Amino acid sequence: MDKKNTIIGITLLVFAFILMFTYQPPEPVERPARELTEERDTDPEAPGVSPAPDAAPSETEPARERPVPDAPAVAREAYPQEEEIVELENDYMVVRLTNFGGAIREVSFQRFARTRGEEERYAFNRESYAPALSLSGFPGADDDVAYRLEEHSADRVVYVRELDGGLEIRRTYSIELDPEPRRPDDYMIRHETVLVNRGDETVTLPRFGVNLGTAIPDDTEARAVGPQFMNFGFYDGDGADFIGVNKFRGGGFLSWIGMRSGEPRQVIEGEDPVVWAAVSNRFFTSIATFDRHGRGYSARPVELPLREDDRSPRQGVTGSVRFDLRSLEAGEEELIGLDFYTGPKEYRRLEHLDDRQDLIMQFGIFGFLSKLLLVMMTGIHSFLPNYGLAIICTTVIIKAILWPLTAKAARSSKRMMKISEPMKELREKYKDNPQKMQQETMKLFRQYKVNPLGGCLPILVQLPIFFALFRMLQSASELRFEGFLWVSDLSSADTVGHVAGFPVNIMPVLMGFTMFLQMKMMPTATANPMQQKIFMFMPPVITVMLYQFSAGLTLYWTVNNLLTILQQFLINRQKDEIDVTPLPETEESAGGGKHKSKRKKPKGKRRK
Length: 608
Fold this sequence. Notes:
By secondary structure, the protein is α+β, with helices and mostly antiparallel strands. It is 31% helix and 23% strand. A hairpin with a 4-residue loop joins β7 (156-162) and β8. The protein starts with a helix and ends in an 11-residue tail after the last strand.
């Protein structure tokens, strides 16, 4: 019974992993750059314009020539004819702004390297569909027109654009130069777009969008977690919805059963109210929290140029939030203000925001456990210098909390093995009377203090903890490029080399081996060969499934297996205070009649 419960629990675990990670959607449809540009020119709701360069121009790189449409209200020479980049900088980020669109070209993170061991910093929106916070669907104010730089100081930049009819657009960006550590202000950009009617007649404002920038895959993303964290998300005041990049590709289970179209989609739109919206990858995000609610959203995939080491197409995601504003009478103005968090997905920063922006972590249904475990791990790391040690300590604490429950289950399993022979006798004796067999089996359990669900309950308790820890470790930016022993990056697989192109990962093999030892030590109450084979087949299956997953997760599982082996060893050495005696030999009629004991007569001389 205990063996069966354990098999059921592990089978559920395997099935859950199969649903979550084995489905591979069809490859994205590649579109040439010309088609992308033409679509944006003809689609007034498209969030942005022509693709940006891979990096912002440096001081030694000549500025790019870009066409500037005529501005009837102001002479053409009042606006620059080429792109100009200015910067805002604090200890955490460098914000590079472009005069085209009066928007953010990219945000470079001072404390995050692009790749491990290199000096180049990770930059959000470097490979982009459009500058972040640029306007779309606003003729004469989109990101293909130049704004005039009116003010540039250490913490503030102001762009201005005048349109025909007297409409003035003023776009302001500011940052904190000395933000408080571990707060969202470290990576917060305050932005305001003010529209002022300086003419004599009423100006009708179009419905336009504010672009959120482009999220592209982190180098570890495809190998460790797949596309589930690459998405556009928004919060409407009640809950958050996320549109993963795989939803644009078509296919999937729902298309197989006819509940959704299997055709690829170039845009997904909605008319929901928007409190905040974001584009994210596994470790970084941009979150625009608006002073006034948006009136709809638009999300679309972005095809990225292939690199030399890419084996499949790269795809990012972008999106925009739309606004409907009233007409402006002469002298009136409208303000669109927002706080633009552009930085790492660190829960301890995001929890300080007021509109549940921490939902961007996507911890899932066991989010409260994920948050608790993340706070525990980062708290331990404040005392220990290494996140590998922090994961080990977190695992030990979890095991210590669950120790009484798992120890009781292990003792119950041990007794279950002891009563396997009496149970076999009962099944044989009452094979024609199932009701009586069940009654006698329960009596046997009570007599020897065996809980038939003892092996299943610990698994059910540990599954939420495992999935919560799994989601936490997969998206915790704290683990990015953190090493431990031979592991160079706890957020990725611990590949130490390749054999014929196949990666050699040590930690998953250790995990599978310790899992095999753990199962070998577990008492078994069944001799069914098929169940034995299924049970011992689990370690290699789990090893294969988690072979390319992050080393932080496999480290947790390996340490947990070792602690379980230690616990089982100690329990196996303990003497059980309950001895199991054979069942008395009885006879019973087929209809469940009276029992007749057959007791052996004692040997010896008969008394006269």
